[in-house]
Design a protein that fits this description.
It is built from two helices and eight strands; from the N terminus they run E-E-E-E-E-E-E-E-H-H. It is mainly β and 139 residues long. The protein has a four-stranded antiparallel β-sheet with strand order 1-8-3-6, with no helix packed on it. The protein has a four-stranded antiparallel β-sheet with strand order 2-7-4-5, with no helix packed on it. Residues 7-105 form the Nucleoplasmin core domain.
Length: 139
């Protein structure tokens, strides 16, 4: 199920926000960022937003995802940039305010059945086996 991520606002006084889920929850969670934008009161300065997470070796890594400036790029669409919680958003430079918005997807493991995907109807199986012959390219 998809839930709207109400977002967060990063400012000079609140430089970071951590999105985490209950450790007892055995569901898979995906947090997707849609938009990062400067909001009312922002100065014309570079505002760098970083995503802080963990790599495959469980080491903390910080990756800049947006560099916003009021006069040239006040908004950035991140096209549903997917992250796995826990994740921290940090204002690495600038004073903001910077607003982040997106959505949160919860996939319950008992709902995720891979067996259903393998069941093709007879017509679909026939269509898959009747492939058109490969023709040589024209020179």
């Amino acid at each position: 199920s998809d839930l709207l991520f109400p977002g967060c606002e990063l400012t000079a006084s609140t430089k970071s926000y951590t999105f985490q889920v209950d450790k007892e929850d055995d569901s898979d969670h995906i947090l997707a960022l849609s938009v990062v934008c400067l909001t009312d009161g922002a100065k014309d300065e570079c505002n760098v937003v970083e995503v802080v997470g963990r790599n495959h070796e469980n080491q903390e890594i910080a990756v800049p995802v947006a560099n916003l400036k009021l006069s040239c790029q006040p908004l950035l669409s991140l096209d549903n940039f997917k992250l796995q919680p826990p994740v921290t958003f940090r204002l690495a430079a600038g004073s903001g305010p910077v607003h982040l918005a997106g959505w949160h997807r919860i996939v319950h493991r008992e709902d995720a059945s891979f067996e259903d995907d393998d069941d093709l109807s007879e017509e679909e199986e026939e269509e898959e086996t009747e492939l058109a012959p490969i023709m040589p390219a024209k020179k």
